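[step 3/7] fold_predict: job queued, chain A
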Amino acid sequence: MMTLLAVFFAAQAAVPFPAPDCAAAPGWTQQGEARSYDPETLFDYMNGNSEGYFAYGFTLMKGVTCVNAAGDQLVIDVSEMGDPDRAWGFFVTNRDQRSPVEPIGSAGQVLPRRATFAKGRHYLEIAASPDKDHREALRAFVTALEPRVPGPAAVPEALAWFPAEGLEPDSIRLVPESVLGLRALKSGFMGQYAVGRAFVVPEATPAAATATMETLRARFAGASPVAGLGDDAFSAQDQYLGRLLVLRKDARVAGVVNVAADGDPTALAKALAGRLR
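[step 4/7] structure written:
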């Protein structure tokens, strides 16, 4: 076992960090020195906006500024996040909600002055100036750099947990901490439906999920058991989360919240439980 672990970590160390390169697209040269930031120094570079990165497990950023003969500038930064799910989740949180998501890496966008994508544990972002349409240059860099970023170009497994019927398009997101504003739900996924919000929180073991269920049951006064849903389930009414139904299936805690007074979360909760493997 120790030999296998040593091989695994050696292989991980052998994968180079995908530092951006101005020569990836013709006509661009590097301006100034390359940048590198870790959790201790990112705050200075991000002008105080680094907390969002930390929530998604940020470990390292490498960046470079590129210019062309016309005086255009591209600021390219590649960040390593906690895991592929968190890299994808960081993209979803920061994407332009008004624009479509493209199949670049696990997900990406190319906009007039900004391009972003996630792949494996990495999140790449390019900011362009001055204020004009830079999509041709941005797409050229994204096309050239995406193959250099290691890791799978796949969305999280969690997306398949949410039933498609009634799901609002592109509404699934990763909440890196305190799902529903509850500290007991450390990290998980949420999706929006007409009937309410659905969530799934993976725990390390069934025992850990059971403990979380007990914490939640004590949190919601008047919780009532619900039979026939997963391994355990209860319903309750909350001042902030409205009518809700919470269930456990194996090592996952899931449920539906913010259900209208005349709505019924049971059908969605059953469908959700049926997709948890």
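[step 5/7] annotate
Helices lie at 2-14, 42-45, 51-55, 84-94, 135-145, 206-219, 266-275.
The longest strand covers residues 29-37.
exit 0
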